[in-house]
Amino acid sequence: MLAACVVACKSSAAKATPAQCEAIVDRYAELVVKEAVPDASASTVAAEQERAKSAARGEDVFKNCATEVAAARYDCAMKAQTTDALEKCLE
Question: Residue 3 and residue 18: Cα distance in Å, rounded?
Answer without folding.
Answer: 26
